[in-house]
Amino acid sequence: MEEKMGSELTQPILNFAIDIYKQLKSSGNNVFFSPFSIAAALSMTLAGTRGNTANEISTVLHVQDSASIHEAFSHLQKSCLSCAPDIALHVANRIYCERAFQPLAAFSALLEKCYSTTMESVDFRNDAENVRQQINAWVQSVTKDKIKDLLAKDAVVASTLMVLVNAVYFKGAWEDPFEKSVTEPIDFHETYSITKKVEMMFRKGAYRMGYNSDMKASILEIPYRGNNASMVILLPDDIEGLTYLEERLTVQNLSSALDDMRMESEVKLYLPKFKVEYEMKLKQVLETLGIKDLFGDRADLTGITTVKPVKFSGAVHKAFVDVNEEGTEAAAATAMIMRLGCCMQMAPPKVFKVDHPFMFLIRTREPNVVLFVGSLKQP
Predict the structure, then answer these.
(1) Which residues make beta-bridge pairs with 229?
(2) 137, 378, 136, 172: which is closest to 275 by C-alpha?
(3) What mean pLDDT value characterizes the chain?
(4) Which of 77, 110, 223, 284 pairs as cysteine with 175 (C-beta 3.0–4.6 A)?
(5) By CB neighbour count within 10 A (0-12 exposed, 13-18 middle, 19+ buried), where does 109 fall?
(6) How many CB atoms lie within 10 A of CB 90?
(7) In angstroms, rounded to a whole number, what is the distance separating the alpha carbons of residues 258 and 215?
(8) How many CB atoms lie within 10 A of CB 116?
(9) Domain 173-273+344-376 annotated CATH 2.30.39.10
(10) Residue 198 above 70 pLDDT?
(11) CA angle in degrees (0–180, nearest 5) for 39-45-50
């Protein structure tokens, strides 16, 4: 039953992931974020909003029934945490609340029940900088030192009432590790004219593969130990084909690409070792997607407080991924800050050589949820 309820969020999170990715893709830089983390933080925020503010968040999250989303997230988080005993997957939620400000009891109870959110009473009014450091230290601890300084200096100030934080940490060993002894420097073609040496891992074995003609990309899935979580690589046919893939990236194309993969018994897989650290201007992204009232004077936060005027002043997201011969380590954290306001299928190649810009995602199978999404343009 839990999996069934959690699965209600499979499509909304995938939709949301693609919406965000399309906002970030044109930068020319590497991209990495956790749609799961951002959606969880937004869903917790949704619990305290009403009226048009709530409608805007529900629409961006692709959720029809905002009343059931909290139970669905509760089940999803529980089933994610137990989905694969061989991988480390930790989700943590915490609210830091100005001690002179008391959120409504129903809001606090819902977040504790559905998101296992802990509440910390702090002194923003007299000691905002110390509280900022306290929040950053907690995030750093939950993410095993991978996400540092989530909140920049002055992100919280004396008028801050509440900071809502979600942190996700993932560490998975490959089902079949790469041999370190065969990793060697190989050319990675960032463009037709720019090439650099990368540490290229190699392994020959059986992998699920596919091809999507709409995106002109080959797809390969690399399972983590326990076979219930995996990294999926989307490799464009062309060296400079990532832009084409991104333009044609839709939920339908991605879903069919994932569904149409088939096991190939002998694949020569070349995959670069890489690390990406990424910081997103989340407030800007959410406003572009349609969440406007939350950050303005029309914010309806009557599910959190009867105090007026109150609005969310900021939203930040940081993520980190490290891919090597043993497996993958990834982490992400999202903070929402509330303040007083004035196709045709072709046979896939048996050699899968990731030597030019590509897109990737990390997902669990049961429940079926996309935890992280990224693209590597400059290793």
Answers:
(1) 364
(2) 378
(3) 91
(4) 223
(5) exposed
(6) 15
(7) 13
(8) 15
(9) yes
(10) yes
(11) 125
Task: Take residue 328 and report the two structure tokens written for it.
Answer: 């993958």
Mean pLDDT of 138-155: 93
Percent share of the chain, pLDDT over 70:
95
pLDDT digits (tens, 9 = 90+) for 252-304: 999 999 999 999 888 999 999 999 999 998 999 999 999 999 998 899 999 99
Structure confidence at residue 178 (pLDDT):
97
Crossing angle between the packed helical segments 10-24 and 282-289, to the nearest 10 degrees: 110
The length of the chain, given as a count of residues = 379
Spatial separation of the C-alpha atoms in residues 162 and 274, rounded to whole Å:
36
Q: Tell me how far apart the alpha carbons of residues 56 and 165 are, in angstroms, rounded to a whole number.
A: 20
**Across the chain, how many H-helices and E-strands are there?**
10, 15
Supply the pLDDT for residue 342. Answer: 47
CB-side neighbour CA atoms (13 Å) of 192: 3
Q: How far lies 236's CA from each of 64, 98, 139, 201, in Å?
A: 34, 49, 35, 19
What CA–CA distance (Å, rounded) separates 311 from 118? 22
Summarize pLDDT for 206-247 with one digit per residue, the tens. Answer: 999 999 999 999 999 999 998 889 999 999 999 999 999 999
* The predicted structure's pLDDT at residue 343: 41
Q: Where are the domains of the chain?
A: 2-172+276-340, 173-273+344-376
Cα dihedral 69/72/73/79 (nearest 10) = -170
Spatial distance between the Cα atoms of 125 and 78, rounded to a whole number of angstroms: 35
Distance CA(355)–CA(81), nearest Å, equals 34
In a 10 Å sphere around its CB, with 0-12 CB exposed, 13-18 middle and 19+ buried, how is residue 42 labelled?
buried
CATH of domain 2-172+276-340: 3.30.497.10
Query: Residue range 136-142: average pLDDT?
Result: 95
